[in-house]
Design brief:
Rossmann fold; 40% helix
Length: 188
């Protein structure tokens, strides 16, 4: 049975971990580049944003990977200018936005847009519950033997933000993040 997966979501949510873990499942899934069995690439979320959904038909299974917003937003401080330029082509961010506001917008609008297109998503993976959430996929393809890898695959040093930090930065956006995160089962 052919397997070709696509993992999308907000960057800093576990796309590299996804591709590394799929290697342990015996599948060749590239991180931010295609391989035999697919890819894990936050930038491919544009296929949904730009209504290029015909390109999604090449994949047998599409995953939306998500991470607790506080952790993803905190980690977003580690991405570079080029990534922010790519993000800015998909969501409205301003050069005048603070790092925390940009990161809050990224988590909220990226996941919001995906949530409004659920027909393209086969699985939602919470990085914090990866092995539990991936079980239906593993059962579908009868993948039983694999080694669990540590979730700290692509960690970077950054300041750990708090809900209070987000609320101070932009209360209205913070409240939107709370609402959307609750749909994904997060309580912040």
């Amino acid at each position: 049975m052919e397997i070709k997966v696509l993992c999308i979501g907000c960057g800093r949510s576990g796309t590299k971990y996804f591709s590394k873990q799929f290697k342990n499942f015996g599948l060749s899934v590239g991180h931010e580049k295609g391989r035999l069995n697919g890819e894990s690439n936050w930038m491919k979320t544009n296929l949904i944003f730009n209504k290029e959904t015909k390109k999604l038909k090449q994949y047998t299974d599409i995953f939306h990977i998500i991470r607790n917003p506080i952790h993803q937003i905190s980690s977003s401080s580690t991405i570079g200018k080029l990534a922010w330029e790519k993000i800015g082509k998909c969501i409205s961010i301003s050069k005048n936005d603070s790092e925390i506001i940009r990161s809050m917008k990224w988590w909220y609008y990226w996941n919001y847009k995906i949530s409004k297109n659920p027909n393209y998503i086969d699985y939602i993976l919470h990085i914090e519950n990866f092995y539990e959430d991936i079980k239906p996929f593993l059962d579908k393809y009868k993948i039983k033997t694999y080694k669990k890898i540590h979730s700290l695959v692509n960690t970077r040093k950054h300041k750990n933000l708090t809900p209070k930090d987000l609320k101070i930065a932009d209360k209205e956006l913070y409240l939107k993040i709370i609402d959307l995160s609750s749909l994904y089962g997060y309580d912040i």
